[in-house]
Amino acid sequence: MRKQLFPFLLLLLTGACAIAQDNFTPVGDWLHTNLHEIGGRGVIMVWKDGKVVYSHAENKLSRSEKLTLQWIANRKGDEAQDEIADFAPNTQKPIASCSKWLSAAVIMTFVQEGKISLDDTIGKYLPVMTLHKKGKIKIKDCLSHLTGINAPPVILTLEEPKESLTQDETMEKIAKMPQEGEPGKSFHYSSVGLEIAAAIVEKVGRQRFELLFQQRIAKPCGMKHTSFGGELVVSPAGGAWSTPEDYLQFLSMILNDGKYNGKQVLTKESVVAMQQNYSKGAKLDFIPDEAREWGYGFGEWVLEEGNERANSLSSPGLFGTFPWVDNQRKYAAILFTTNVNFTGRHNRYMSLKSLVDEAVGK
């Protein structure tokens, strides 16, 4: 009887897996339809119930897309062939502002250890900020873009050489920027807040930010191919490189209240604190078009508010990668791509999330 029952159960399980993958057919169709709108290459991965439940990559660079990427590679001195290689779950690329989520997590490890407080003023650690009348800005303001500093937009050009500043020079440069609003009450999306917070934890932790990230987030989350680079001063707001697999592991930790593979990386309290909407009621001095209608937590956008914390969150990057966590439906996902087409991004992101919501809910 048992021998007869086993093949039947196996058939049922196999059928269930097939049905589950069929649920994601509209998601794969979305990637195929939008492929050239997002740069000709993309990877979508979804994590639920402790495992990857969907992984799909498509690659179909047009001739013009290939020529553009080859030209960029030549300008940077990189291998053009590497630049146009197919994307896969283990492809490593710069993730721009997706870095903010990672960096905020690093800073929250210092908060939960009691080494710094979210209500600490930055002047306590960085006298140059007090010198330029910014000393009363709080660390929590830095994590939520509520510093009130009128920071210039990040402009990427291939002609402009990369600036090489020490940490102290970077802080002095930020300290001299004009103040446009009251800290805690004026929202301006930029890199300066996380730059300040990272400089503070470097001083407290007595190590470079890259090492702090590797020790406190990357290693415990098994992120072997994620890094902020080898520079002495990194960009915590936009300088990380990662892979779809690695970033999804980080998201799964966030989804699981800070725990990864049985290890508590962040406390639940830290995760919940990161997932509040701190920009509600603030004067909106600058917000990217793709993030309209969203609020902001610590290093992440609030897509949909909830009761104890946000129902869903994201931290999309300049190059098109869109990671998100849905606390209500209990899943995490990522669209990984390289693309600087901003037209229609917001609507594309929301349509993709809606399709994944439906797929995991079946």
Structural commentary:
- This protein has a domain at 89-334: DD-peptidase/beta-lactamase superfamily (Beta-lactamase, 3-Layer(aba) Sandwich), CATH 3.40.710.10.
- The protein has 13 helices and 13 strands.
- It has helices spanning 2-23, 25-34, 63-76, 80-83, 99-112, 127-131, 139-143, 167-175, 192-205, 209-218, 244-255, 268-274, 345-361; strands spanning 41-48, 51-59, 93-94, 186-188, 241-242, 259-260, 263-264, 283-286, 295-296, 301-304, 312-314, 322-326, 331-336.
- Strand 12 and strand 13 form a beta hairpin.
- Helix 2 (25-34) runs antiparallel to helix 13 (345-361).
- The two termini are 33 Å apart.
- Residues 1-19 and 155-162 have low confidence and may be disordered.
What is the CATH third-level topology name of one domain?
Answer: Beta-lactamase
The rough form would be described as: globular
Largest beta sheet, briefly?
A: 7 strands, antiparallel
End-to-end separation? 33 Å
Structural class: alpha+beta
Q: What is the strand arrangement across the widest sheet? A: 2-1-13-12-11-10-9
- The overall strand count is 13
Please report which band the strand proportion falls in: under 5%, 5-15%, 15-25%, 25-35%, 35-45% or over 45%. 5-15%
> Helix proportion of residues, in percent?
25-40%
Assigned CATH architecture of one domain: 3-Layer(aba) Sandwich
Poorly predicted runs: 1-19, 155-162
The CATH superfamily title of one domain:
DD-peptidase/beta-lactamase superfamily
| Mean residue pLDDT | 90
The number of helical segments is 13
> Would you list the SSEs in sequence order as H and E?
HHEEHHEHHHHEHHEHEEHEEEEEEH
- Radius of gyration (Å): 21 Å
| Name of the top-level CATH class of one domain | Alpha Beta
